[in-house]
Amino acid sequence: MKLLAIDTSTDYLSVAVMDGAKTLARIHRKVPRSHSSLLMPTIDSCLTGARLGLAKIGAIAVSIGPGSFTGLRIGVATVKGLAFVTKTPIVAVPTLDAIAENGRKICGILCTVLDARKGKVYACIYRSDGKTVKKLSKYLLLPMQELLSKLERYETVAFLGDFAERAAAMRPGAKVATLSWHPKPEVVGSLGLGYVNRKKFVSVEDLEPMYLYSRECDITGK
């Protein structure tokens, strides 16, 4: 299946065109506050690079957050417009899952952590066996100290995200998994393909950015 993958959740603009697991074209570059003017030209460039028209795309995978409110709204609105006109199915990929994949080769506990401002962070806890990443918690919005309390049960933790270095400094024995933490478009595409295979589609009407609230902050796995 030909799939278009889009991420606008951070200060990077990321777009890829996939053919199954193969990346046909990708653009991943830092464009602070320029998503609105650059997203459509970037999509066009990737489609041109893949020698495909939008009509040949079988599904669109979009990263839905949490992340930059403005960036997420731009990405979601663009996908809504494209899907409405072309009738292309949509799959929604949580941004924290895409970030966690950057630490997949590390065996152990991974924790994605993004600065949510006002003294809180967006986070999610995962376990990696070096090949696959399994989510252990819900997507969290909470003060950093509360996150550290939830992580006390684990001997070692590797952090990923824009708050990773500060988080690692606050947790003895912790480390930063990688400085290249930004969601990659081919990863959004790969995760999106998994949703496609499980037929977990989202309608144009129901597609929305992921906004977290305190009632959703709870650990569900071990």
Uncertain runs are 214-222
Q: Do you know the CATH architecture of the largest domain?
A: 2-Layer Sandwich
Q: What is the 3D shape? A: globular
- What is the fourth-level CATH superfamily of the largest domain? ATPase, nucleotide binding domain
Task: Report the end-to-end length measured between terminal Cα atoms.
Answer: 35 Å
Q: Helix proportion of residues, in percent?
A: 25-40%
Question: Any overview of this molecule?
Answer:
This protein starts with a strand and ends in a 25-residue tail after the last helix. It contains six helices and eleven strands. It folds into two domains: 2-95 and 182-211, Nucleotidyltransferase, domain 5 (2-Layer Sandwich); 96-176, Nucleotidyltransferase, domain 5 (2-Layer Sandwich), CATH 3.30.420.200. It is globular, with a radius of gyration of 17 Å. Helix 1 (35-49) packs across helix 2. The strands form two sheets. Strands 6, 7, 8, 9, 10 and 11 form a six-stranded mixed beta sheet that branches. It has a five-stranded mixed beta sheet with strand order 3-2-1-4-5, sandwiched between helices. Helices cover 30% and strands 29% of the residues. By secondary structure, the protein is an alpha/beta fold.
